Amino acid sequence: MNKSFQFNFNSFNKFKLNNRYRIFDRVRGDRPQINLILLLLTVLTTYLMNGILYSISIISILLAHEMGHYLMCRKYGINATLPYFIPMPLPPFGTMGAFIKMKSPIPDKRALFDVGVAGPIAGFIVTIPILIIGLENSAFIPKPETQAAGFYLGESFLFSKLAELILGPEPEGFDTLLHPMAYAGWAGLFVTALNLLPIGQLDGGHVLYSLFGRRSQDIYKLTIAGFMIVCAVWYPGWLLLILLLLYFRLKHPPTMNDHIELDPGRKLIAYATLIIFIISFIPVPFHIT
Fold first, then answer.
1. How far, in Å, CA of 189 to CA of 203, rounded?
2. What angle do CA 193, 106, 101 make, to 5 degrees?
3. What is the three-class DSSP state of 132?
4. Residues 6+ positions from 144 with CB-CB distance below 8 Å
5. Which of 189, 111, 119 is closest to 155 using CA atoms?
6. Is the N or the C terminus of the chain less surrounded, counting Cβ atoms within 10 Å?
7. 169: cis peptide before it, omega within 30°?
């Protein structure tokens, strides 16, 4: 069943919903106060965008993702900064996400894989319960009440199935108004899928290079080509991301010991992350009427 998921940034409150490596110390010269200030500003911008429940939820998802990367860097003795959050007092999320910066080379493909995959998996694990709680507190509302807002969300396979399981089929003439936590969960899946794109130095690119080494370069090109088709046929909004990916180049730098290959257990996890990407990706994330 084709559902229309909507989030109204301004009017949600009108509806009362009852229903083995050396560990480095922090790099000298880092300024954790900057990380803290950016975090607090992002808490503020996400709160102003959509309230406290959304703010706590989306910050928790982003923090889990980046700390997954950071802790794996610590495990392998890779110099890395604490997470930098990016406040953005504009829709749709009130933030442009977060990132860490690695300041030393990656020892080998196993370390690269663990660092790359830890973020999306940690963020995904936090996203799912937030999404479920949010969907349980979402509601169907008559379509005439949603026409003024006109902000609709696309569906990933996972989001669609969870919504159908928790809310049931959407009645004729109704839209689904998402609770702020459900919207944060939707955003969590969206961010996870973007990071798992098997391109360049995105998390998915790290995973792919860990699997195939320099041969991954050809897969990056095929992925970008497919992404361009999606952009041209279904959603032109992807154009900016494609240009950014091309600007930052698709080539992945080698690790210090590129001859060390992934073990079978890591390969299994790699294929599991591919499944997470497939069920979380939204070809057409937004449309506005």
1. 14
2. 60
3. helix
4. none
5. 189
6. N
7. no
The answer to whether 193 touches 281, Cβ cutoff 8 Å, is yes
> What does 56-95 look like in DSSP terms, one character per residue?
HHHHHHHHHHHHHHHHHHHHTT--BPPPEEEE--STTTSE
Residue 196 amino acid letter = L
Q: Are 14 and 146 a contacting pair, CB within 8 Å?
A: no
Altogether, the residues listed in the chain come to a count of: 289
For the record, the structure tokens of 29 come out as 């010269």
- For 48, 129, 179, the CA distances from 166, given in Å and listed in that order, are 28, 12, 13
pLDDT digits (tens, 9 = 90+) for 161-171: 999 999 998 88
Under 8 Å CB-to-CB from 209, ≥6 apart: which residues? 109, 112, 216, 252
Task: Take residue 274 and report the two structure tokens written for it.
Answer: 């591919």
Mean of pLDDT values over 36-43: 96
Degrees, nearest 5: CA angle 161-235-12: 55
Other CB atoms within a 10 A radius of the CB of residue 31 amount to 10
Give pLDDT tens digits for 47-59: 998 999 999 999 9
CA distance 250 to 255: 16
Tell me how far apart the 2 most distant CA atoms of the chain are, in Å.
61
Quick count: other Cβ atoms within 10 Å of Cβ 270?
A: 18
d(CA 76, CA 70): 10
> In the numeric block, which tokens belong to residue 186?
């939707």
Q: What residues does 287 pair with on adjacent strands?
A: 152
- Flag whether pLDDT at 83 surpasses 90: yes
For the chain, where are the alpha helices, taking DSSP H only? 32-50, 52-75, 109-136, 157-167, 180-195, 203-212, 216-233, 239-247, 264-280
pTM for the model: 0.85
